[in-house]
Write a structure and sequence with these properties.
- The protein is of the alpha/beta class and about 550 residues long.
- The protein is built from 17 helices and 25 strands.
- The protein has 2 domains: about 75-290, Aldehyde Dehydrogenase, Chain A, domain 1 (3-Layer(aba) Sandwich); about 295-490, Aldehyde Dehydrogenase, Chain A, domain 2, CATH 3.40.309.
- The protein has a 7-stranded mixed sheet with strand order 15-18-19-14-13-21-22, sandwiched between helices. A 6-stranded mixed sheet has the order 10-9-8-11-12-24, with helices on both faces.
- α3 (about 100-115) runs antiparallel to α7 (about 225-235).
- The longest helix is centred in the first third of the chain and has 29 residues, at about 135-165.
- The radius of gyration is 25 Å and the shape is globular.
C-alpha cells in the first residue's frame, strides 16, 4: 500500500474502543501535587496541558489533539523554596542524608526500587502515551532503569569495599573514601525520560547529595507515580521536584549559586546558558550529555548486508530520536548507490503505527514542531540537489512522519550539520576517506562514530585517528550507549563528565581523605573510632 497522508491518518485510533484495553488511559491525569521538603503539596496555580502524540482520528479525516492530563507550572518563588529545602537537607554536608552510612543509603534506594516496581504498569503506560514510545520499548526502558539502579547499588558496594581499609604511606595513615558534592539540579531528556534521568539522579542520591529534580517538558506525567516513593524512601528534603517552564524556574536556581552540581541531558546551548548563570562557575560540577551528529563511515569493502542492517537500527530506532543515533552516513562513492538502494528497501519494510501495535517501528513524534522542522530540512536538501529515495519518504500526518532517505547530502544543506533528531536519514558520498575524517574533525560534536569495513589495516588506521575525535568508535555496529557499564561521554559540545554505572558514582562525588601521623596515640584513636563504629565515614565495615 502506498504511503500517503491519508494512509498514515488511518493509523490513528478513531475512539477508545480501537485501543487495546491494556494500554487505555483510565482518565486524564491532572496532576496538582509536587514534592517539596518531604511533603506532597497541592498547587493551585497555572498548569500545563499534556497533549499526547496519539491524536484521535475524526470522521472527516482530521486529527483531534488528545489531552491526557496536566501538571503544575511552578513559579520562581516556589522553585526557590524547593532549592532551600535541598540546601537545608544537605546542611553543608551535615544533614541526615549526607552523613548517613553507605549501607543505610543503599537500603533507602533499595526501598525506593521496590516501591516503583510496584507501579510499573502505570509508569510504562504513561511513558507510551506521553512520548509515543512503542509498548515494547517503554517496557524495556523501565526494566533497564531498574537494572541500572541495582547495578549502581552493586557498584557502590564494590567501591565501598575497596575503600574500607587504611593506607599507610611515608608514616601517614589514611583512609580514602568518596563524599557528596552538595545540591544537585537534575534535568533529564524527553526521549528517555525515565532511564537517562535516573542514570544521573540515582548515582547523585546514593552518593549522599540532595537533589532538585526537574522532569522534561515531554515525559512529565510519568514521574507522578514516583513522588510517593520518593517521600517514603528518603529523608525530608533529600528529593524535591521542580515543575514548570525551564526558562521561568531554572535561571533563579542557577543564579543563586547554591547549586553545586548540574546534571543535564539536553542541548549544549541550554547547558552553556545555565552554566553562565552560576556566580561561581569554578564551584559548579557539570555532568552533561549533549548534542551529537554521529557519523557512519561505510568503506568500499564493507559487508553491505551488515552495514544496512546496522544503519537501519542506528538511524531509526525510536524514530531516530536518540542522541546516539547515526545521523549522517558517509559512503564510498563506488558503493553509495548500492547502499542507498538497499537501505531504502529496508526502510520501506518498517511498520508505522500506534505504539501499542505489535511490531510497530515508526510512531508519532512528541515534539509538536518537529514534523515541520523535518519538512524544512527535506525541502532545503531537495532544493540543493538531493533526492528522497524511498517511496513515501517524508510523508506526514500530524505528528506521524514516515522516514525519509535523503541522498546525496552535501555541505550547505541543513542536514549536513544540523542534528535532525527524527526519522530522516541523510547519506553523503566520498571519494577518499580523508573527507569523512575531515568532516568529523570540523564538527562541533564528538560523541561516537561507526566504521563499516573489513580490511584490517584501513579499519585500524581509522580507529587510531578517530579515537582522538570521538569518545566511542563502533566497528561494524551502530552507535549506542549500552552496555551501561561502558563509559558514556563525548568530546567537544557533546558531553562533559562521564556516565556509566561505574563512572556516575565518581561524577557525583569527590575523593576525600582522613589522615593522621603514624603514632601509637593516633593508632589507638583510630581503632577506638572504628571498633566502636563511631563514624559513618571512617569505617572498616564491609558491605555484603
Amino acid at each position: 500500500m502506498p504511503v500517503t497522508t491519508e494512509s498514515l491518518t488511518q493509523l490513528f485510533p478513531p475512539n477508545e474502543a480501537a485501543i487495546p484495553e491494556a494500554w487505555r488511559l483510565p482518565e486524564p491525569l491532572h496532576q496538582r501535587q509536587y514534592l517539596l521538603d518531604g511533603e506532597l503539596r497541592e498547587w493551585a496555580g497555572p498548569t500545563q496541558e499534556v497533549v499526547s502524540p496519539m491524536a484521535e482520528r475524526q470522521p472527516d479525516g482530521s486529527l483531534k489533539p488528545r489531552i491526557i492530563g496536566s501538571y503544575p507550572l511552578l513559579d520562581e518563588a516556589e522553585s526557590l523554596k524547593a532549592l532551600d529545602a535541598a540546601v537545608r537537607a544537605y546542611d553543608h554536608g551535615r544533614g541526615e542524608w549526607p552523613t548517613m552510612s553507605v549501607a543505610d543509603r543503599i537500603a533507602a534506594v533499595e526501598k525506593f526500587t521496590r516501591l516503583i516496581v510496584a507501579r510499573k504498569a502505570e509508569i510504562v503506560r504513561l511513558l507510551l502515551w506521553e512520548i509515543g514510545k512503542s509498548a515494547a520499548d517503554s517496557e524495556k526502558e523501565f526494566d533497564r532503569t531498574v537494572d541500572y539502579i541495582r547495578n549502581t547499588i552493586n557498584s557502590l558496594k564494590d567501591l565501598d569495599r575497596d575503600s574500607s581499609r587504611f593506607t599507610i604511606e611515608e608514616g601517614i595513615i589514611g583512609q580514602i573514601r568518596r563524599s557528596p558534592l552538595g545540591v544537585v539540579l537534575c534535568m533529564g531528556p524527553f526521549n528517555y525520560p525515565l532511564n537517562e534521568t535516573f542514570c544521573m539522579l540515582i548515582p547523585a542520591l546514593i552518593m549522599g547529595n540532595t537533589v532538585l529534580f526537574k522532569p522534561p517538558k515531554h515525559g512529565t506525567l510519568l514521574h507522578f507515580p514516583l513522588l510517593q516513593a520518593f517521600t517514603e524512601a528518603f529523608p525530608k528534603g533529600v528529593v524535591n521536584t521542580v515543575y514548570g517552564r525551564g526558562n521561568a524556574v531554572v535561571p533563579a536556581l542557577m543564579s543563586s549559586g547554591k547549586i553545586d552540581a548540574l546534571g543535564l541531558i539536553g542541548s549544549s546551548r541550554v547547558a552553556d546558558s545555565l552554566k553562565k548563570l552560576h556566580p561561581k562557575s569554578n564551584r559548579l560540577r557539570a555532568i552533561l550529555g549533549l548534542d551529537a551528529k554521529n557519523v557512519g563511515i561505510v568503506m568500499p569493502d564493507a559487508d553491505l548486508e551488515v552495514a544496512v542492517k546496522e544503519a537501519l537500527l542506528g538511524s531509526l530506532s525510536f524514530n531516530g530520536q536518540r542522541c546516539t543515533a547515526l545521523k549522517l552516513f558517509m559512503v564510498h562513492e563506488h558503493i553509495a548507490e548500492d547502499f542507498v538502494q538497499r537501505l531504502g528497501a529496508e526502510i520501506n519494510k518498517l511498520k508505522p503505527g500506534m505504539p501499542w501495535e505489535a511490531g510497530v517501528n515508526i510512531t508519532p513524534l512528541p515534539e509538536p514542531h518537529k514534523p515541520s522542522y523535518l519538512s524544512e530540512c527535506l525541502v532545503d536538501a531537495q532544493s540543493k540537489g538531493a533526492r528522497i529515495l524511498n517511496e513515501g519518504g517524508g510523508t506526514a500526518a500530524g505528528p506521524l512522519v514516515y522516514p525519509a532517505l535523503v541522498y546525496p547530502v552535501k555541505e550547505g544543506m541543513k542536514l549536513w550539520r544540523e542534528e535532525q533528531f527524527g526519522p530522516v536519514v541523510p547519506v553523503a558520498s566520498f571519494a577518499h576517506v580523508d573527507e569523512a575524517i575531515q568532516y568529523i574533525i570540523d564538527s562541533d560534536h564528538g560523541q561516537q562514530v561507526s566504521i563499516f569495513g573489513s580490511e584490517s589495516r584501513e579499519v585500524a588506521d581509522l580507529i587510531d585517528q578517530l579515537v582522538n575525535q570521538v569518545s566511542r568508535v563502533n566497528i561494524n555496529a551502530q552507535c549506542q550507549r549500552g552496555p551501561d557499564t561502558f563509559p558514556f561521554t563525548g568530546r567537544k559540545d557533546s558531553a562533559e563528565g562521564t556516565l556509566s554505572v561505574y563512572d556516575a558514582l565518581r561524577s557525583f562525588s569527590i575523593r576525600t581523605v582522613v589522615a593522621t601521623k603514624q603514632t601509637d596515640a593516633n593508632k589507638h584513636l583510630l581503632n577506638e573510632i572504628v571498633d566502636g563504629q563511631e563514624s559513618s565515614f571512617l569505617s572498616t565495615r564491609f558491605i555484603l
